[in-house]
Write a structure and sequence with these properties.
The protein is an alpha/beta fold. The protein has one domain: Macrophage Migration Inhibitory Factor. The protein is built from two helices and four strands. It has a four-stranded mixed beta sheet, covered by helices on one side. Strand 3, helix 2 and strand 4 form a beta-alpha-beta unit. Helix 1 packs antiparallel against helix 2. It is globular. The model has no long low-confidence stretch (mean pLDDT 96).
Amino acid sequence: MPLARIDVAAETSLETVAAIGDVVYDAMVNAAGVPEHDRFQVINRHAKDELVYPADGYLGVTYTPKIVFIQITWNAGRTIEVKKAFYKAVADGINAKTGIRKEDVWISLIDVKREDWSFGNGEMQYAPVE
């Protein structure tokens, strides 16, 4: 059910992009309880002027041109503890597998209702039971 949108710099290698996608998926399954095989990701590369962040940092965090923006749309209902574990698993995993600084892993979560999805065929697979 989650949809991950991952935005990286244009020069990010294929191997790094693959590693980032794998880490995000693994964290969804292992930290957030997403079902196995539920992997939907859109990955975009951007020119330097298309990844905008505060040059002086924000909330004590500084950024570099290697910033990775990750936005996850998923079903509402996860606890704050689960979300914190997810953030940590993604930042730690990306750092370990790619060398990208944890500070450059920026994540946003969007909680939606189960009926806000169609996985194909024009159907609402998670329709409420009446």
